[in-house]
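Hey, why these numbers?
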Amino acid sequence: MIKIGLGDAGVAKLAEYLVENHTLKTLKLVKNKITDEGAQALIEALYYNNGIRALNLGSNLLTERTLDAFIDLLKTKNTIKTLHFNQNCAGTTSLRQKVKEITKLGVNIVM
């Protein structure tokens, strides 16, 4: 699902599907104009999903707020092993600290 213009509404619909589907292992949502709002819907679904191991959210409109939400998710549910977050709008203020924290949780993060 690369560069299909999902946006927040589309990713929210996808999130509903992910709550029930546990067979999908890799999800690539690159260049889909997803903001923190859409990512939040996805993260909430991932609390219930046991299948996703790799998630690529590169080249969207995500900020550190989404990274914080992923850190919270990964502290309680660590099924995701690879997270791509490259080419987003995340600031650099405490980005290195957040990347280290995610790495300590056993996740390979690509920035």
Observations:
- The longest strand covers residues 26-28.
